[in-house]
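phosphoserine transaminase, pasting as requested.
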Amino acid sequence: SREEVAYFGAGPAPLPTPVIEAGGKAFVNYNNTGLGLAEISHRSPTANAVLAEAKSALTTLYDIPEGYEILFMQAGGSGEFSAVVHNLVSVWVERRRRKAEKALGNDEDKLLERLRKEVTEELKVDYLVTGSWSLKASQEAARLIGTKYVNVALDARKANNGKFGRIPEEATWSLTPTKREGGTGSAFVYLCDNETGVEFPAFPKCLEPQGADNEEDERIVVADMSSNFLSRKVDVSKYSVIFGGAQKNVGVTGITIVIIKKSLLPPQTATPPPALLHKLEIGGLPGTIVLDYATIAKNNSLYNTLPIFNLWIASQVMVNLVNTFGERKVSGQEEIANKKAELLYTTLESHPQVYQVVPDKSVRSRMNICFRVLGGDAEKEKEFLAGAETLNLTGLKGHRSVGGIRASNYNAVPLDNVEKLVRYLEDYATK
Ligand code: PMP
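Structure tokens follow.
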């Protein structure tokens, strides 16, 4: 039964049992309508109510300010690797075009010439590469628009013997200078808030808003929060785009949540026509329409068929958090996540001869606790995992390319299960 198994998988992750049970009923016969939620139209009043409820709960939990839009999309975190590039480079081009039009009027040839020059000389996207997901995202940007436009402002492996596991000091990052810093700024700065094992301890100081006269001269900060979504308080106003796949902390696979500043959507910025981008020769742009933020926003996330059952699961998880934590909102969940992570790290650290936590203490993740057994002895790690399995402690095997042990501590992993794992860690170490 569910109660007997303590699952620590990296994602998809466990969901709260009451939501799973209610989901079973809603899948068969939603609210006695005689239809399941996966069978109804995404344009029905029921679907709209689910969408509204999900937006409202998320707005409450994260205190999302007025100037932001919530989008529900598909194609997962990886889809957003592409979407971010497509949309934000488009915004960059559109803003440049507006400025050029003011100076040059409507002379198409002159406009094109100027824009082409600006793209060649000034277009940059900044990536902070702190783990395999931000690395993948930066590679997708290079694939779409070309390596020459991608500035890897930080490759955390360089300062750590070729391995991820530390985030070097901000002073060593090489971000594209903003207008205030004497440059022209980048189309965006991208970071992954939680990589497997490595989490930004806080919003980077050097990315704080600079108080520019014009909002367009501020940095556009994009964060992948796929693996720590709704696990701590976030000052949404510092980000331009936050995205996350639902399948770890929020729901089942198939829904991707995007929180985006409205000033990056029409009418302020129209997506440039495909022909223009093509003429500017910016790699593989434009992207597909179902990843176009403006289109999805204009259609209230219902441009095409959204999986309403999956959305409902996410809405239930979020509504439960609202009901459970009340005024404390996501900070209530944060306390629990911190407590569970602390328990595990403290136990691991109390047996340094047996366990070695992989990432540096300053950046270790509250969501994925990565460690080695006896310095990474393959036989001992196998033995450790086999012993865990016999106790129904499952999903602990590390990433296939990295090895080791990885205990994922997502929101719905109960404290009881973490305590069971702590007991096993103690027993194994003292045996
Ligand atoms: N970003 C992060 C931080 C992730 O952890 C993952 C999935 N583990 C992804 C992106 C990719 O997500 P998806 O499989 O939904 O494309």
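Note for the archive: The CA atoms of residues 28 and 430 lie 49 Å apart.
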